[in-house]
Amino acid sequence: MSVLRFDNVSKQYPGGHVALADVSFEVQPGEMLFVTGHSGAGKSTLLKLIHLAERPSRGAVLFGERNLHKVRGRRVPLHRREVGVVFQDHRLLHDRSVYENVALPLILRGLRRGDIGKRVRSVLERLGLAARERALPSQLSAGEQQRVGIARAMVAEPALLVADEPTGNLDPTLSAEIMALFAALPERGTSVLVASHDLNLVKRMKKRVLVLDHGQLADDIAPEDLADA
Amino acid sequence: MPERNTTARPASRIVTWFDHHLYSFVASLGRIARRPWATALTVGVMAVALALPLGLWLVLNNVARFSGDVQRSREISVFLKPEIDVARAQGLATTLRARADIGAVDVRTPAQGLAQLRAQGLGTAIDAVGDNPLPSVLVVTPRGDETLLATSLEHLPEADLVQHDALWRQRLDQWLRFGTRVALVLATLLGLGALLVVGNTVRLDIQARREEIGVLQHLGASDGFIRRPFLYLGAWYGLAAGALALGLLTAAWWALQAPLAELAASYGSRFMLVGVDPVQAAWVLGGATVLGWLGAGIVTGHTLRQTRPTEA
Questions:
Q1: Residues spanned by the domain of A116
Q2: Which of A10, A65, A178, B282 is the most core-located residue (most Cβ within 10 A)?
Q3: Using CB atoms, which residue from A64, A116, A118 is nearest to B2?
Q4: Is B256 on the interface with A (CB under 8 A)?
Q5: In which band, very low, low, confident or very high, does the pLDDT at B55 lie, cut at 50, 70 and 90?
Q6: What is the CATH number of the domain that holds A69?
Q7: Do A74 and A5 reside in the same domain of the chain?
Q8: Which of A82, A115, A190 minimises the CB distance to B1?
Q9: Mutate to test the interface with B, among A94, A104, A188 (most CBs of B within 10 A)
């Protein structure tokens, strides 16, 4: 069964702007793929639909067997706990330490304190942040902050991790480093969907690419076809 | 939900509930510690807003005691005819005590009246009159409507004169009732003011933390999880403001107690200003804490409904 499925999804905002038009695709467990396209192509809207920050005007978004259209009210936070999100601007809590930021999704899930400590330290270790667990975000470099954001998104081992322009503010070296972290996640069973307008970076990763153009799915390129794209 | 392997299990609901409250408890204390001056100002404003109705309540408390003193001095004096001797006066008193509208009857004999006058330095004048000219007096404490009782006593064949200052007592009662009502209205308004102060402070705090709230909502925090630190914050504000308000009232009590006692003593009264006792203080602290919690809850609920994300 797929982790995520878009069935003829359209999204029209109040005012008439069509952000997505009849988009269909599936994401398999442990798969990493990119969504790319120019600014305004519909990448962010697509991520918002997955994260229930928006709802489709037509069609269905399925997370596993769950039709997200039917998730309402108090069930929305429960859905969000199952999807890891990485933002371009990190969105860390500035008055909490690295450890506290990363622990938040686990606290929300109600894990035991001992388990939280083990998981957070394990993730920080993997992301090279173990020595910085007591630091505040303001004491970190941009790359470190983004790594904390990724640690926070992956610590709860979500079935799906979505990232919105996660390397937008980073230099090429750091961008490659961050992408390598994402690429390692499918090995642990997490599917990864990254929205990026950086075509060179996307091509280098050699993963499946969805190309959006004016809200339509213009292309769905398999990794092996990337060289020709 | 797609299946994932996970090694950690969620804690029980009670442990989770406790952990979330502990998290909010610590987070709220952290917010206070990071902004000591802003916190002090908020608590100060709230304390004054609480001290005013509490002060009025204390005034009411003391007025009620004073009013009680007045009620106790509502006796009706029935001066009996000169020919009524003490034995007959005692008999009449026994008869009157059986009436439902009478609480008590004291007999003041002519000899007792004379002794009282001598004690007041009028002995020489009395001696000049010769025989004791004073009548027996019945001092009647009413149980119900004193005016009706006084009228009834005037019709006793043994009564020569009935002394009852009903009018000024009625007016005093009316003033006291009016004062009580004014104080209650002011206390309610000022209590509402304290609630609004907490609400507004928490609203500003929420505004300043809008981004953080957005992040928490994206991570899947429930409204309850987001609201809780603000509720604790409101409760802390309320508790601290209640304590400070009690301190202000105690200081006012210390400042007023001695001069008021001296003033009362100059009128022959032992009236003493009563402050807040420990049980009342506990109620004030509890009430202020609940007030802070409520104010924070109302504003946070309203703000969260407005900030529920459709994406920042």
A1: 85-157
A2: A178
A3: A64
A4: no
A5: confident
A6: 3.40.50.300
A7: yes
A8: A82
A9: A104
